[in-house]
Amino acid sequence: MVFLGSGNMNSEGHLEIGDVDTVDLAKEFGTPLYVYDVAKIREQATAYLSTFKKRNVTAKVAYASKAFSCIAMVQLMQQEGLHLDVVSGGELFTALQAGFPATHIHFHGNNKSIEELTAAVEEGVGSIVVDNFYELDCLKSIGESLNRVIPIQLRITPGIEAHTHEYILTGQEDSKFGFDLISKQADQALHEALSSSYIDMMGIHCHIGSQIFESDGFVMAIRKIFDLLEDWSESFGYEARVVNLGGGFGIAYTTNDKKISIEEMMNVVVDEVQDQVAEKSLAMPEIWIEPGRSIVGEAGTTLYTVGSEKRIPGVRNYLAVDGGMTDNLRPALYQAKYEAVIANRLSQKNTQTVSIAGKCCESGDMLIQEVSLPKTSQGDILAMFCTGAYGYSMANNYNRLPRPAVVFVEEGEAQLVVERETYRDLVHLDRPLKKTVVTSF
């Protein structure tokens, strides 16, 4: 039996990940439970690095920690030789707590606070991706007050509409991110950056979207970037040391998703950059990319315990689990599709089509609209594949549900890397009313 993401069937007919029985994991750590196949994460990270190495191209691969961030995950990325992309003070703090070198951190975000920017500069992050004129002004002031030269990249919106969900398009002209090309905002930003002795203008950044399966969008973006760099070379005498193409590389959530390999995608990127450099007689820049989902997405599986069942003849059969939109918001937010199996019944034939419902008090809390499964009973373990990206990182406490635990599995060993929240955790920041009013009925 072949599974999306990670896993195989063991001799007991159970789903096994990283040589660990998922039924045993559910018993030991409870459900819902995020399970990460560490070997799969390492494999994806290596695929990016090795492609650039084979092509003898200077490049940096930065893991986009918004996909999934915790101390153990950050440390794993350091082990694999990746840089790190953070988008908030919290992600930066997590990285530093993990011992990640600040010089290998790139700081993103469209509304970084003065406090966040100051902390990033004081810690010595390797690059700040500047999203707007407000940030640029703040950094010039911070640089002057701290007497620091701050390395930056300017984020542009190249006007490319990648083939993806409209909610996760970020490279088109009408976007909250980056400097616009048509209105010449990018030119003005470059002029202001070069005019400050406290700014080191490393290069240019763009991000055209997420969950992208075709290379065409990246080719078009690279051409737009190098048209701009050619103009900047002629008008400002500026040559970029770095061209950062962001991330957005898609994964297969279902058997209908047809992705291309990391090596194939990166080879297209390298070919186009080299062609543009030669055509426009520019210096070859470093190529930076920021994959997140494609590194952790397929490595993650969420385990749930099956609970109630509701059958509506001729309409739908609901199967409810002990999680939902609190541990995976993507189906409700993006109408994202997933596939699943009953982890303790892999050897049994599928005999029914059901809809997987979450336990939140929302009719839209549906994890999977239709999936074929064998006969199920209360207490069975449902495994939903490819939940490694934007599951835990978007998890929430709606209905005051505690967030699940996270476990890493590798070579037959399971390690708890994030503890399950308790009910006490849910109220530890609450404060009672100062004045109590007793009402009689």
Automatic annotation (TrEMBL):
Cofactor(s) required, per the database record: pyridoxal 5'-phosphate
Residues involved in substrate binding: R293, R330, Y334, E362, Y390
Domain (Orn/DAP/Arg decarboxylase 2 C-terminal): give its ranges.
34-388
Q: Name one GO molecular function term.
A: diaminopimelate decarboxylase activity
The UniProt keywords, alphabetically, are:
Amino-acid biosynthesis, Decarboxylase, Lyase, Lysine biosynthesis, Pyridoxal phosphate
Q: Which Pfam families match?
A: Orn_Arg_deC_N, Orn_DAP_Arg_deC
Reactions that this protein is recorded to catalyse: meso-2,6-diaminopimelate + H(+) = L-lysine + CO2
Q: What pathway is this protein said to act in by its record?
A: Amino-acid biosynthesis; L-lysine biosynthesis via DAP pathway; L-lysine from DL-2,6-diaminopimelate: step 1/1
Record domain Orn/DAP/Arg decarboxylase 2 N-terminal: where: 39-296
Identify the EC number(s).
4.1.1.20
Q: Where does the source fall among the domains of life? A: Bacteria
- N6-(pyridoxal phosphate)lysine: residues bearing it: K66
> Is Methyltransferase one of the keywords?
no
Major enzyme class: lyase
This protein is called: Diaminopimelate decarboxylase
Task: Give the source species.
Answer: Pseudalkalibacillus berkeleyi
Which gene is transcribed and translated to give this protein? lysA
